[in-house]
Amino acid sequence: KVDYDVCSNYGNWLYSAGIGNDPRDNRKFNMIKQGLDYDGNGDYVRLWVPELQGIKGADIHSPWALSSAALSQAGVTLGETYPWPVVTAPEWSRHISQRPGRNSHPRGRRGPAQAPVQHKDRGIDFYFSRKKDV
C-alpha cells in the first residue's frame, strides 16, 4: 500500500523543517519524541537503517546516548558505521531518559556518551535558540 497525499505530505515536510505558519511560539519538531510515540520499539528505524539493527528497543532512536559497551555489543561505531548527530537539541534529553526500560538519571537528564561538537557560526543555533528576535 502506498500512502501519498500531496498536500498533507508537503505540509508535514514544511512543518518538520520549521517553516510555514504555526500559531505556537518557539515550536520545534522533536524527532526523538516522535520516534518514541510512533515507533516505540524502533521497528521502522530498524527496517530502513540496517546499521542500527543490533540496537534493541527504543534505544535505536538515540544511539549516540548509549554507552560504548552497548554500542560495541550492537556492532555500532559512531563516526564509522553510523554518523554522529549533526545537532543535538536540549529538548531531546528528557525523552532519552524516559525511554521504556531505562533507568532515569537522578536529575532526569542523560547526556550523550560523547557530545558532538556544535559550531555556533553555522547557523543551527538560531533554530534551537530560546532568544526571541521580533
Automatic annotation (TrEMBL):
<dbReference type="InterPro" id="IPR036134">
    <property type="entry name" value="Crypto/Photolyase_FAD-like_sf"/>
</dbReference>
<protein>
    <submittedName>
        <fullName>CRYD protein</fullName>
    </submittedName>
</protein>
<comment type="similarity">
    <text>Belongs to the DNA photolyase class-1 family.</text>
</comment>
<dbReference type="InterPro" id="IPR002081">
    <property type="entry name" value="Cryptochrome/DNA_photolyase_1"/>
</dbReference>
<dbReference type="GO" id="GO:0003684">
    <property type="term" value="F:damaged DNA binding"/>
</dbReference>
<dbReference type="GO" id="GO:0071949">
    <property type="term" value="F:FAD binding"/>
</dbReference>
<feature type="domain" description="Cryptochrome/DNA photolyase FAD-binding">
    <location>
        <begin position="2"/>
        <end position="96"/>
    </location>
</feature>
<dbReference type="Pfam" id="PF03441">
    <property type="entry name" value="FAD_binding_7"/>
</dbReference>
<keyword id="KW-0274">FAD</keyword>
<feature type="binding site">
    <location>
        <begin position="3"/>
        <end position="5"/>
    </location>
    <ligand>
        <name>FAD</name>
    </ligand>
</feature>
<dbReference type="InterPro" id="IPR005101">
    <property type="entry name" value="Cryptochr/Photolyase_FAD-bd"/>
</dbReference>
<dbReference type="GO" id="GO:0000719">
    <property type="term" value="P:photoreactive repair"/>
</dbReference>
<keyword id="KW-0285">Flavoprotein</keyword>
<dbReference type="GO" id="GO:0003904">
    <property type="term" value="F:deoxyribodipyrimidine photo-lyase activity"/>
</dbReference>
<feature type="region of interest" description="Disordered">
    <location>
        <begin position="93"/>
        <end position="119"/>
    </location>
</feature>
